[in-house]
From TrEMBL, chain A:
This is Nucleoside ABC transporter membrane protein. It is a multi-pass membrane protein. It comes from Actinokineospora cianjurensis. Keywords: Cell membrane, Membrane, Transmembrane, Transmembrane helix. The chain crosses the membrane at residues 56-76, 88-105, 111-135, 144-162, 200-218, 248-268, 326-345. One of its GO terms (molecular function) is transmembrane transporter activity. GO terms for cellular component: plasma membrane. It comes from the Bacteria. The lineage of its organism: Bacteria, Bacillati, Actinomycetota, Actinomycetes, Pseudonocardiales.
UniProtKB/TrEMBL annotation, chain B:
It is a peripheral membrane protein. It comes from the Bacteria. Its main location: membrane. One of its GO terms (molecular function) is ATP binding. The keyword ATP-binding applies. Keywords: ATP-binding, Cell membrane, Membrane, Nucleotide-binding, Repeat, Translocase, Transport. InterPro entries: AAA+_ATPase, ABC_carbohydrate_import_ATPase, ABC_transporter-like_ATP-bd, ABC_transporter-like_CS, P-loop_NTPase. It is found in: Cell membrane. Residues 15-250, 267-511 form the ABC transporter domain. This is Nucleoside ABC transporter ATP-binding protein. SMART domains: AAA. CDD domains: ABC_Carb_Monos_I, ABC_Carb_Monos_II. GO terms for cellular component: plasma membrane. It comes from Actinokineospora terrae.
Length: 372, 514
């Protein structure tokens, strides 16, 4: 890790903050141009931020986004683009929901039931991602293409399985269908917050643990070093004795396993069933959050919280008459501008560092000084 | 572009740089540089890496602006704020790394960015005619309709030159043009340069290969630590003297002291054959033995199987037949990791591609390639303290000039990056060192230091496989010399008696004298 000087901290924050300010400006202009008051919008968001319920919901969204972001980031760190987090978590959530809701599970102790559900979700996620890894190392198929296609296949597979004739049942009194409801022993209790009708997902703890493990493995273990090395320079990694194929398989499996966790907080903390209205598209949010958070465990946490807050503030905007789509515009602009800003800061940093080295050395030593 | 005669009557210099000074925050890259380039000559600028040659050329090409000093082209003062201004004044630059699109033809590459137009359509006819005309006038022999992908390195370089001429340049800056060429291509390039000169063009030739400079230049300017220290003519100076001017002190020579070769075979390779992806045999039945305390030098024109040999020995490329035995253990099928653990140190030919993680700090680069051994790891965990401490040791012992071990490898100069790699690969007492062009692109000071480290390790019974394009280095540093040609070992020479000329002809397959 770099030494923490005021300058390096400032540089690290420059890109995301700059992108945020830029996005706010763009949104302000769009709002003004469409006849909405930017001031009112900020006001509505500020009011929303004071409601405990909005905050709890934001934290819950952030928990899920964070897990998705870590799943994406594991691949990103070695230049592996797992676009398939989306399909992986949906398939994993659906299958583990079916298992957790099954009648025979009622007899198991609560802890074992939850552990089993989560374990199966990770296995399914890893398995689905593993297909892409296998295609890549044996046939050279780009993981971008294969994971996108696997997303589509997962969609159809889930809708095939989510049928009363197979793993699902119709919800009484509605035309929704879903897996059997997970009974209380299989649920993860939420955390009460005063003033809020919703509870904080109990599995927020799981997200924190995943974040810690992610940080620890990447920065403290040999495996993490090899993963980062492969991402920085594949040829150098090969020369250093890393088997790139093995790394591709392992990191894809890990990415998929974490992706399998993405649906868990929602499934075990709120829905208790995988039904047609289970939240989709979380994998893609994960990509945006990983980009914004620069694959950094803390950075992604902040990014996930921001994303969660923006999403939930959108509801408040609706109430005060501002079109909620402004949040989508804002999120889009943030992602685009943050990518540009990071590159600018990176270039500046490289130049600054080279100059610092030149400054510290002053001049080249003569031969006598060298051999002396 | 006419040369305007000044009051004196003699033609004005093509380029005159007076008192150029360029400061970067904290560093003075150039101070008080004075160079006069006579029109119609080849003017060489020599200096160590980091001496300030590149900055100076960037100033002349308008990529950077000087803080002080003036530039005059053909006697008239100019001020360039971008390369476009420089091109307009007739100055063109051929970069060290080619900037060509492989999937386009020569013609398309040449016109790219200054496409001739007829209304809205591109006028390729006129362009083709002009290219053919330029190519014929300067003897470049470039066919406008060939795909760049099909061209060799030398031909690509001529396309780059043509590109610059096509834009009307009368003064060409060539940045280390021979770094990428094999000896025959260098000769061809020099032939082209003489043709260009005969046509009245002026050439600025940046290099640190002194023999080449002496053979092609009319005037030589030596730069050291950002300033011009001498202007000499090639007649009155030797390569050695020039090098001493560059370094500012007496020069090291590659030579070994008394023999340390033992009977103890460290690496035995027998019948090694490697077939490339295209079905071509790139290594053909190669056999050799390196003993403890022995340096085996391999001479050869680049592209004759050296890279494949190194990769086969490192386990990066699998061999088709043959056996590799290291200290009595068959490692033919072992992974790169196992070979490294068995004690092979590796200094790769291309340090940016294979030797370093440029965007990682020095201490992480210390770990690279040694991820499984102390002091870098403890079990599955990294030993960050141990790795950092050992990086400090390498920085200290190998004189890696850096403000600290937390800076990224990309911030160091090439020579210092190489010293870090040498230090790393010598750590953990290796039994065999594979050194591929260990002193390529490093300055004279670093070169001497690297030689000294190899000598010292040899005295401590290290076996070394040395591959180099620098024949003096090969002859001076080897106990045994083999020549590789088209994937085969074709001759053995005694480094004590062989001359670079004999070696050179054996490398091209010309003279099979002994």
């Amino acid at each position: 890790m770099r030494n923490l000087t005021a300058r390096s901290v400032l540089l690290g924050l420059a890109a995301p903050l700059g992108a945020l300010v830029f996005a706010a400006l763009v949104c302000g202009i769009i709002l003004a141009a469409t006849g909405n008051s930017p001031i009112d919008t900020v006001d509505a968001m500020a009011t929303a931020a004071q409601r405990p319920r909005t905050l709890v919901n934001s934290l819950n969204s952030a928990t899920v986004y964070y897990l998705a972001a870590v799943a994406v980031a594991i691949g990103f760190r070695m230049k592996l683009f797992n676009i398939g987090v989306d399909g992986q978590y949906r398939l994993a959530a659906m299958l583990s929901a079916a298992l957790a809701g099954a009648a025979f599970m009622d007899n198991l102790p609560s802890f074992l039931r939850i552990a089993l559900t989560i374990g199966v979700a990770m296995l399914v996620g890893a398995g689905w991602a593993g297909l892409a890894a296998l295609l890549k190392v044996t046939r050279g198929v780009s993981e971008v293409i294969s994971t996108i296609m696997l997303n589509a296949i997962a969609t159809y597979l889930v809708s095939y399985l989510l049928n009363p004739a197979r793993l699902a049942e119709t919800t009484p009194g509605s035309n929704n269908i879903g897996t059997a409801k997970i009974t209380e022993g299989g649920q993860v209790p939420g955390i009460e917050v005063s003033g809020s009708s919703t509870k904080v997902f109990g599995l927020v703890v799981l997200a924190a643990v995943v974040g810690f493990v992610y940080w620890f493995v990447l920065s403290r273990t040999k495996f993490g070093f090899e993963l980062k090395a492969t991402g920085l320079s594949e040829s150098a990694a090969v020369a250093s004795g890393v088997s790139v194929k093995k790394m591709v398989v392992i990191s894809m499996l890990l990415s998929g396993a974490v992706a399998g966790l993405v649906g868990m907080p929602q499934l075990l903390g709120s829905s208790y069933t995988y039904s047609l209205d289970f939240p989709p598209g979380l994998g893609f949010v994960g990509i945006a959050v990983a980009l914004l958070g620069r694959n950094h465990p803390v950075g992604m946490m902040v990014a996930a919280l921001l994303w969660g807050f923006l999403d939930n503030a959108a509801n408040a905007l609706d109430i005060s008459g501002v079109p909620r789509e402004i949040v989508l515009i804002m999120q889009g602009v943030i992602v685009l501008s943050v990518v540009v800003a990071y590159e600018l800061v990176r270039r500046y940093r490289v130049r600054a560092e080279q100059q610092a080295v030149g400054k510290a050395l002053g001049r080249t030593k003569t031969l006598e000084e060298v051999s002396a | 572009m006419s040369t305007e005669p000044p009051a004196g009557g003699a033609p004005a210099p093509a380029v005159q740089l007076s008192a150029i000074t360029k400061r970067f925050p904290g560093v003075v890259a150039n101070s008080d540089v004075n160079i006069t380039v006579r029109a119609g000559t080849v003017h060489a600028i020599v200096g160590e890496n980091g001496a300030g040659k590149s900055t100076l050329m960037k100033i002349l090409y308008g990529m950077q602006q000087p803080d002080e000093g003036t530039i005059a082209v053909n006697g008239a003062p100019v001020s360039f704020s971008s390369p476009a201004d420089a091109i307009r004044a007739g100055i063109g630059m051929v970069h060290q790394h080619f900037m060509l699109a492989d999937n386009l033809t020569v013609l398309e590459n040449v016109v790219l960015g200054s496409e001739p137009r007829k209304g809205v359509a591109l006028d390729f006819g006129t362009a083709r005619a002009r290219i053919a005309e330029i190519s014929a006038a300067y003897g470049l022999g470039v066919d406008p309709d060939r795909l760049v992908d099909d061209l060799g390195v030398g031909e690509r370089q001529r396309v780059e030159i043509l590109k610059v001429l096509y834009r009307g340049a009368r003064t060409l800056i060539l940045d280390e043009p021979t770094a990428v060429l094999v000896p025959q291509e260098v000769d061809e390039l020099f032939g082209n340069l003489r043709d260009l000169k005969a046509e009245g063009l002026t050439i600025l030739f940046i290099s640190h290969k002194l023999d080449e400079v002496l053979s092609v230049a009319d005037d030589i300017t030596v730069i050291r630590r950002g300033t011009t220290v001498a202007s000499v003519s090639p007649e009155g100076v030797t390569a050695r003297k020039l090098a001493e001017l560059m370094v500012g002190s007496a020069l090291p020579v590659p030579e070994l002291r008394e023999s340390t070769v033992t009977d103890d075979a460290v690496l035995t390779v027998s019948g090694l054959t490697v077939v490339g992806a295209d079905g071509r045999t790139v290594l053909d039945n190669v056999s050799f033995t390196i003993h403890a305390g022995e340096v085996l030098g391999i001479a050869g024109v680049e592209g004759n199987g050296q890279a494949e040999l190194v990769e086969a020995l490192m386990g990066i490329r699998s061999c088709n037949t043959g056996r590799i035995v290291l200290s009595g253990r068959d490692i033919t099928r072992a992974t790169t990791r196992h070979r490294r653990e068995a004690g092979i140190g590796y200094i790769p030919e291309d340090r940016h591609r294979q030797g370093l993680l440029l965007e990682a700090p020095l201490w992480e680069n210390r770990i690279l390639g040694h991820q499984t051994s102390a002091p870098n790891v403890r079990g599955p965990l990294l030993d960050r303290k141990g790795a950092k401490r050992d990086t400090e040791r390498i920085v200290d012992e190998y004189d890696v000039r850096t403000p600290g071990i937390d800076v990224n490898a990309s911030a160091l100069s090439g020579g210092n990056q190489q010293k870090l790699i040498v230090g790393r690969e010598m750590s953990g007492s290796p039994v065999l060192l594979i050194a591929s062009h260990p002193t390529r692109g490093v300055d004279v000071g670093a070169q001497a230091a690297i030689w000294e480290h190899i000598r010292r390790a040899r005295a401590e019974q290290l076996a070394v496989l040395l591959i180099s394009a620098d024949l003096d280095e090969l002859i001076g540093m080897s106990d045994t010399l083999s020549v590789i040609l088209r994937g085969r070992f074709v001759a053995d020479h005694d480094p004590a008696t062989v001359t670079p000329e004999q070696l050179g002809s054996a490398m091209t397959g010309a003279g099979r004298e002994d």
